[in-house]
């Protein structure tokens, strides 16, 4: 049974509403290449994002968070489920309509080196979406590009330089300028700082926050590290093996995590105060993340969970509101 977030709290301020999202990739085998199984990369995700907020989506690598982001943008076709942007069901739109919708939803990629084509100048990269969507004549587009570069903290004078002439942080700014060119309402930022030096990460995070305030952007911020999303997110969703296991306001999630997996992730974050750090107990998870091709029965976290009981091996815990606005998928939360 897919998890279900009780979305009665989804209001007119909701920009994105995702229900029962699944992305399964077929495994082919044998001489004829028949389907012999499925990798359940995303296996029933429910979440919603209010206009102007940042939802952090966190989990270990391979948990399906990036695939969720791409499926929301329809860059990967979902196997099942619903994705509504401003009430419009994206999963049923023909590709010509999806293309038009792309103006409203953009992506900032993880790798600032691989995501920018080295054969093109910065001006060509940032102007591409403007040209594709006929947003002005060449003079107007040039002015928009220069303005976008200024907005992300780059000198417009760089417009004729190639992306390989820039540092990682500057390239990520170019990627952000390209993502903002069409004034999207939703930006999916897929690990936008994980490839950058720590000193540069804070600058890019601050830039994203400034831009959100300036343009009223809504972010789905994908990260593998809870400490990265802590300050930028209004709410945080934690994913494990294709499902959201906890979803709450940032403060509640960090102060009183309800799901054992979230508790383990948080216990791994060092505390700057040496006295507190010395007294803290770290939860070491045993075993590896199971294969999404053959996930465990019931709660898929049960082989690694120190609280697991018989029911956990048999019944999938639904994502339910355990405290006000605090959802967890666990039979024994807290
Ligand atoms: Fe652990 Fe059971 Fe909760 Fe799963 S449902 S997280 S196995 S206590």
From TrEMBL:
Top-level taxonomic group: Bacteria
UniProt xrefs under InterPro entries: AAA+_ATPase, ABC_transp_ATP-bind, ABC_transporter-like_ATP-bd, ABC_transporter-like_CS, Oligopep_ABC_C, P-loop_NTPase
Protein keywords: ATP-binding, Nucleotide-binding, Transport
Keyword Transport assigned: yes
One GO molecular-function entry: ATP hydrolysis activity
Family named by the database record: Belongs to the ABC transporter superfamily.
Name recorded for this polypeptide: ATP-binding cassette domain-containing protein
Lineage, top ranks: Bacteria, Bacillati, Chloroflexota, Ktedonobacteria, Ktedonobacterales
């Amino acid at each position: 049974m897919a998890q279900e977030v009780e979305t009665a709290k989804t209001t007119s301020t909701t920009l994105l509403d995702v229900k029962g999202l699944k992305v399964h990739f077929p495994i082919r085998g044998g001489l004829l290449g028949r389907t012999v199984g499925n990798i359940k990369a995303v296996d029933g995700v429910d979440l919603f994002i209010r206009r102007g907020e940042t939802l952090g989506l966190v989990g270990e690598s391979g948990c399906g968070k990036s695939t969720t982001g791409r499926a929301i943008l329809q860059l990967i076709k979902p196997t099942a489920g619903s994705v509504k942007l401003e009430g419009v069901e994206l999963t049923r739109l023909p590709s010509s309509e999806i293309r038009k919708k792309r103006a409203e939803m953009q992506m900032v990629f993880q790798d600032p080196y691989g995501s920018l084509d080295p054969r093109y100048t910065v001006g060509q990269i940032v102007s591409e979406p403007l040209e594709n969507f006929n947003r002005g004549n060449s003079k107007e587009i040039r002015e928009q590009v220069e303005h976008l570069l200024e907005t992300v903290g780059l000198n417009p004078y760089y417009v004729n330089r190639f992306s390989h002439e820039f540092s990682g942080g500057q390239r990520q700014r170019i990627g952000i300028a390209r993502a903002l060119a069409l004034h999207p309402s939703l930006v999916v930022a897929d690990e936008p700082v994980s490839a950058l030096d720590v000193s540069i990460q804070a600058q890019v995070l601050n830039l994203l926050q400034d831009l959100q305030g300036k343009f009223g952007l809504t972010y789905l911020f994908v990260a593998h590290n809870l400490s990265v999303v802590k300050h930028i997110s209004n709410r945080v969703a934690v994913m494990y093996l294709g499902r959201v296991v906890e979803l709450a306001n940032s403060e509640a999630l960090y102060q009183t995590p309800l799901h054992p997996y979230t508790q383990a992730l948080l216990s791994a974050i060092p505390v700057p105060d040496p006295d507190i750090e010395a007294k803290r107990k770290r939860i070491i998870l045993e075993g590896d993340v199971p294969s999404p091709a053959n996930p465990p029965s019931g709660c898929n976290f049960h082989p690694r969970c120190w609280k697991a009981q018989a029911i956990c091996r048999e019944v999938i815990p639904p994502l339910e509101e355990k405290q006000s606005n605090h959802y967890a998928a666990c039979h024994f939360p807290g």
